[in-house]
Amino acid sequence: KLNSLADNYAVLKEIIEDRGAQDGDVIELEYSDQKEDWEKKPLSFPFTRRLPKEIFAKLDGLKKGEETSLPLDKNRRVRCTGIKYKELPVIDDTFAKGLGEFKNVDELKDSLRQDLFHRKEEEAMQAIYETITDQLIEKNSFDIPPTLVAEQVLHYKKSGLPLSDEENLDEKLK
Question: What is the pTM of this model?
Answer without folding.
Answer: 0.56
